[in-house]
TrEMBL record, chain A:
Protein name: Carbon-monoxide dehydrogenase small subunit
Gene Ontology terms, MF aspect: 2 iron, 2 sulfur cluster binding; metal ion binding; oxidoreductase activity
Record key words, sorted: 2Fe-2S, Iron, Iron-sulfur, Metal-binding, Oxidoreductase
Domain 2Fe-2S ferredoxin-type per the UniProt entry, residue ranges: 2-78
SUPFAM superfamilies to which the protein is assigned, alphabetical: 2Fe-2S ferredoxin-like, CO dehydrogenase ISP C-domain like
Taxonomy of the source species: Bacteria, Pseudomonadati, Pseudomonadota, Alphaproteobacteria, Rhodobacterales
Domain of life: Bacteria
Species of origin: Palleronia aestuarii
Cited PROSITE patterns: 2FE2S_FER_2 (PS51085)
InterPro entries cross-referenced by the UniProt entry: 2Fe-2S-bd (IPR002888), 2Fe-2S-bd_dom_sf (IPR036884), 2Fe-2S_ferredoxin-like_sf (IPR036010), 2Fe-2S_ferredoxin-type (IPR001041), Beta-grasp_dom_sf (IPR012675), Diverse_Oxidoreductases (IPR051452)
CDD domains assigned to the protein according to its UniProt record, in alphabetical order: fer2 (cd00207)
Pfam family, any one: Fer2_2
From TrEMBL, chain B:
Stretches of the chain forming a coiled coil according to its record: none
InterPro entries found in the cross-reference section: CO_DH_flav_C, CO_DH_flav_C_dom_sf, Diverse_Substr_Oxidored, FAD-bd_PCMH, FAD-bd_PCMH-like_sf, FAD-bd_PCMH_sub1, FAD-bd_PCMH_sub2, Mopterin_DH_FAD-bd
GO MF terms held by the record: FAD binding; oxidoreductase activity
Lineage: Bacteria, Pseudomonadati, Pseudomonadota, Alphaproteobacteria, Rhodobacterales
Protein name: Carbon-monoxide dehydrogenase medium subunit
Organism, as annotated: Palleronia aestuarii
Keywords: FAD, Flavoprotein, Oxidoreductase
Amino acid sequence: MNDIKMKVNGREVTGSVEGRTLLVEFLRNDLRLTGTHVGCDTSQCGACLVHVDGEVVKACSMFAAEADGREVTTIEGMANADGSLNTIQQAFQDHHGLQCGFCTPGMVMAATTLLRDNPKPSETDIREYLDGNICRCTGYHNIVKAIMAASGQEVDRAALAAE
Amino acid sequence: MHNFELVKPTSIEDAVAALKEEEAQPYSGGQTLLPTMKARLAAPTKLVSLLGIDELRYVRIEGDQVHVGGATTHATVARETKEAYPGLASLAARIGDPAVRNRGTIGGSLANNDPSACYPAAALGSGATIKTDRREIAADDFFEGMFMTALEEGEIVTGVTFPIPQAARYEKFIQPASRFPLTAVFVAKYDAGVRVAVTGASELGVFRWTEAEEALSKTFSADAVKDLKVDDADMISDLHGSGAYRAHLTKVMTARAVTALS
Ligand SMILES: Cc1cc2nc3c(=O)[nH]c(=O)nc-3n(C[C@H](O)[C@H](O)[C@H](O)COP(=O)(O)OP(=O)(O)OC[C@H]3O[C@@H](n4cnc5c(N)ncnc54)[C@H](O)[C@@H]3O)c2cc1C
Ligand code: FES
Ligand code: FES
C-alpha cells in the first residue's frame, strides 16, 4: 500500500491506496467526490478530466499514488466561493450546453484550462481543444456556444450551425 | 488490473537499478501502458515511474539542435520548441488531446513504437539521435518494426537530439475515433537533402520513403512525387482503410507537406 497525501479542492487529504488504484477511484470511492465521472475507463471520453497542478489530465489514466504531493481540482472545486455557478458553469446552463450532464464535469474542466491559455478562442480552437471530450447528447454546438459566451464573445448561431 | 508496486526514483541511476528486477517496467505518462494494463495485456509487478526524475525533463535549444529529455511531455515540447523547431512543435501539439499531451512523454512514445505514433516520424524524419542510459542510437537504427525497437531489457530513453532542419512539416490524416494518424508523413528539408518519414501506414512500422527523398532532394515540389509509386505490399489493411488506400495517402500527405513548405 502507498500512503498518499494531496490537496484536493484546496483541502489536505490523506489516504492509503494500492499501486493500481486510479486517481478517479480515489476521488470517487475514498473521498466521495462523485462529480468526476467515468465514461469509458479506456482514456477516450474525457468525462473524468480533473486538474493536477493546474493542468487537465484523465483521472482514469493516472494512478492515485502519482498524485501524491500534488494539487488536484475537481468539478466540486469549480463553483464560486458562495456556492453559485462560476462563469463557465453558468454559461453551460444559459446556453443549454448539457442535456444528461454526464460529460459536463469533463467539459467544464477542459474549458477552464482552454480559457486560461486562450482567453478569446475561435470556434475551431474550442472544437480542437475538446478533441478528447465526448458528448452523446448535445451534438457539441451548445457546448461550443457556452464556451464562446463564457469567454465574453458574441455567439454567432448561424456560423456555428454551419460548421 | 493486476496489482503492482509503484516506485518513484529521482535519478536515472536509481531507475536503471530498479529496472534490473524481473517483471519491472518503465512507466512514464501511462497514456499507453495504463490502458494496456487495464486490458491485462501487460502485467508488470513493478512500475518504475520516470516522471519524478528531473534530469529527464528538459527542452534545450543549442545551436542547430534541439535536445529533449526522455520524460518531457508532449505539451512541453509543443510549447518550448515552437520557435526553434516549429515542425516538431506542431507535431507534438497534435498528439491525441490536451489531457494526453499533459501526461504522455516523448520517451514513452519512442520506446513503444506504435506503428501509428507521431514521434517516430519526427525522429526518423529528422535523423534524430536517441539517447539511453547506456548509449546513443541513430533513429535509422532505433525502430525495428511494429512495437519493436533497439532498446534492450531495462534500457530507458533518456533524451532525443533533433538536428533543426531549414523547414519541416507534419501532415497527419487523423483517424477520428482514436485521434492517432491513419497515415501521416513528416517531411524535413536539410542542407544535406530531404527526409521523408511515414507513420500509420506500414506493417513494419515507421519508415523512410527513400524514392520521395531522392526526388525531393533534386526538385522540392509536389510534382516531384506525383509519378512515384508507393508499394502497398507491407501496408496495414484494416477496417479503417486498405493497404492501397494507405499507400495512396502516403503520397497525398507527402505532396501536401511539400506544398505547404514550398
Ligand atoms: C486518447 C489517446 C490518443 C492518443 N493519440 C496519439 C496520437 O495522435 N499520436 C501519438 O503518437 N500517440 C497518441 N497517443 C499515445 C500517447 O502519445 C502516449 O503518451 C505515448 O505513446 C506513450 O507515452 P507515455 O509517456 O504515456 O508512455 P507509457 O504509457 O508510460 O509507456 C509506454 C511504453 O513505453 C515504455 N517506456 C515509457 N517510458 C520509457 C522510457 N523513457 N524509456 C524506455 N521505455 C519507456 C513503457 O514501459 C511502455 O512499454 C494517444 C493516447 C491516447 C490515450
Ligand atoms: S473515463 Fe477517463 S477518459 Fe473516459
Ligand atoms: S450532455 Fe449527455 S453526454 Fe454530454
